[in-house]
Fold each of these.
Amino acid sequence: MFRPKGKKKERVKLSKDSVQKAKRIFKYLKPYRGVFFIGWIFLVLSSSAGLFFPYLLGQLLGGEQTASPGMAQSNTSWIEQIDFNNINTVALMLLVLFVLQSLFSFFRIILFTKVTENTMRDIRKEAFSKLIYMPMNFFNKNKVGELTSRLSSDITLVQDTLRTTIAEFFRQIIIIIGSIIFITIVSWELALIMLATVPVMAVIAVLFGRFIRKLSKEAQDATASSNTIIEESMMGITNVKTFTNESFVMSKYRKTIEEIRRLNIKSGNWRGVFVSFIIMCLFGAIVFIIWQGLHMTIGPDATLEKRDFYSFVMFTVFMGASIGSIPDLYASIQKAIGATEHLMELINENTENDIYKGDDNPTLKGQVSFNNVSFHYPERSDVQVLKNMSFEVNSGGKIALVGASGAGKSTIASLLLRFYEPNEGTYSIDGKSVDQIDIEHLRDHMAFVPQEVILFSGTIKENIAFGNPDANDDEIEAAAKKANAYSFIKDFPDGFETEVGDRGIQLSGGQKQRVAIARAILKDPKILILDEATSALDAESERLVQEALNNLMENRTSFIIAHRLSTIRKADEILVMEKGQIVEKGTHDELINMKDGVYANLNELQIQ
Ligand code: ADP
């Protein structure tokens, strides 16, 4: 089950299960495995070549001769013919090494980037195509903001890992293993002393560093929460003042700043210990080894050549750095495995296409019936939202849903659109159970005009064409005319090409609604669901919107969630709802004449 867990990226324990799930990423790498493999070859080459760097550097530092040596004997191998005591030869070799390494690294980076970017494109595509086809309940369970930020941070983590972290991790491992082999060959005694001190110190230093980072993170969190107190009290300053709560807020704030002080001092103290530790132990250990090693190079019975000793020191420094970087790299890989597991979970979720099996594509006329439908939201099985609802509307009929907020009107709209399934009872269209009808085919024949119209960023034309992306300009204009939107659109300097949405101009509530109506007209649905806007429009907008709605409803089965009774006088049937049940049913005239009827009372209230 896909669960976003807030913004914090938890590090997962590397369990068999999580690794198993994360392994599914290989499916996405598979098409690029050839390039990936070549990338790995370059990685191994560049890392192995990297091992020569500390070696040659040591030889260079410890080398003494500059003159060319005499011809070596011809029966020795080429490597034995190289005089590592000659600094010119060594410098030249270093140069060759850099050329090789730069070539290897270049190809390693471009090949890894190529594979990563191709893979990430495929994963992004798959993740979004899953997301957009998720059933409605998925969006109830997951907050949209959290979902998107989680997704993008998961993808970034996987991307960084594929592109660099894995390569870096293996490079360091190669350096560590290669260094150990080299120093053991040079002097196993010195190697033993070194291995017993430097890696241990390096690991302690890293863990110590992490502990200090944790402490300063705590201090940062405390600072953030104290800032929240300031922000909240400033935003709600009228409340603070009217309740004369200044001193209460002040004491809350005082507590948090005291905590910040305490945490910062604690982390400062530990930082002091940390720095002393580094100076004493880590540097101490290095000096100790150098001192030991130098002893081995001095005197007539010296066991170590000076330049080999220098190489030894270089390897030690390189290895120390590599060991130090391993914990963080490992942590990044762990995080990436968590992120991959998460992404794979999302990709393996069931979409609407997996859930809705119906595949009939009948010609729909728009006769709709609900038979004893009961429903509760999947996440709230304790609250029965609809109870035994039955109604029927003929093709082209108009049904109005009336009732207090929370009565279940929008829920009916959601069920009609099959955002959810009834728990009991049946929902059929033209006498056919909707289970048998292909979900996209069904929704193709429906349109929904919501209370709060959301326009996408783009032009007005694109927003109308959302109802039917294949429509041509004439059809779009005709729809705008029917929706009473044409004249205001034409009044904009850019007409239909006017940008709306976040970066475009702001339309008024009534204008947005007419764009949404044009969108629905263009879609030309058989079944229409209107959620009447609650916010009052001025009389003129109201008239234009109402007229547009009347045009839209013509010859279509329409469900109108009504907030103003004046707009539904002509409905064929009005369903009056209370707590998920139909309490009254009839035409306007029938209902207002019911003595003590709910509708009659509502009508009285609205007339007053
Ligand atoms: P209306 O449209 O008549 O105001 P709704 O259909 O929106 O009523 O809500 C009916 C009931 O269902 C309310 O009690 C509401 O709290 C609950 N409800 C609405 N949407 C959800 C949801 N997504 N998850 C859980 N409960 C919901």
Amino acid sequence: MTLGNALPALPYAHAALEPYIDARTMTLHHDKHHASYVDNLIAALADYPDLQHRPARWLLLNSGEIPAPVRTAVRNNAGGHLNHSLLWRAMSPRGGGEPAGALADAIKRDFGSFAQFKTHFAEAGSKVFGSGWVWLVRTHQDGGKLQVTTTQGHDNPLTQGQFPVLVNDVWEHAYYLKHENRRLDYLNAWWAIADWDEAARRYEMSGNAAALQRETEVGQPLARA
Ligand code: MN3
């Protein structure tokens, strides 16, 4: 099938994010969990050839086009596929440090300081009940301000009209082998591998409709309020 929904290769080795995320966790998370979302998405669309070429973000943003018998399965697994595709690129063995440029200015404007942003993001992630995600998003309802938000399951803020800039996964499978029940410790350690170059790229793209059109993962331009 020509489905644009295939498991992307990790952009680094499974052990590259040690000691912050262990190789065993990365192997299970990418090769098993993410792979299962892709497999389950393909299975859900097996009887709907007209939908098989649609990328995950299209499937999420057009839930009314998804037949009712598979709507929930498509939402969960397209979300799992898209969110994990964003997650692998939100991290880097050369990550850490602080953002620069326009993103740094916007974080200071909207959160007061980089330190306050980090506290806000980690606390929000630590408070997600059950399984979900924590995001730095650019809103369009409020002049393009940055905001920290969380989602349940594999929901993506794109469906709320918010553009993801940075993301972390707070499902237990993301951290439990190494950090056990200490989710906040994981979130605080994670700053050492957050990829601010990628976040800055996404922030700049969020203000550029032509770039958004070209983006393969999240190619829906934001409708400006
Ligand atoms: Mn996960």
